[in-house]
LemA family protein (Halalkalibacter krulwichiae), 183 residues
Amino acid sequence: MGLLIGLGLIVLIGIFWITSYNRLVKYRNWVEESWAQIDVQLKRRFDLIPNLVETVKGYAKHEQETLAKVVELRNQITSPQNSRQEQIHANNELSGALRQLFALREAYPDLKASNNFNMLQEELAGTENKIAYARQLYNKTVMEYNTKIQSIPTNIIASVHNFTSRDMLETPAAERENVKVTF
């Protein structure tokens, strides 16, 4: 009788271990999938930028520094040796450079009137919104995953199988400051 109880207990622990492990794998895969969604949107923006730069080049020939910065940051994002945090840092800098590029339209009335520029600007604005949503989803997924690997009793299974916590994406300090509006 004691042997059956012992075997039953071992089977229950085994079932618990397997289901907990599988749940951790599922959460880890969700983290990877949510990162892939960010990557898809960054690729979309990556593909739109050359068209935008070429459009602006025709109107703003002496704004080469801004255009060169946009192209340089675009290339940093796709560099395979960069970590996720480095890619996100370059992405944040690129967002600032794109804002500078869009500010050029006020200085160049012909650019402001360009349908091609306006269409590209709308596409990029939509892509920026999708990137923001994908970042929110990633942070939510990472939070759920980290909670699972830090909670008892799954933290034991997580440590045995080397599940490690992931970092959330953070907003740069410059973007946290209050916006100053002057008229």
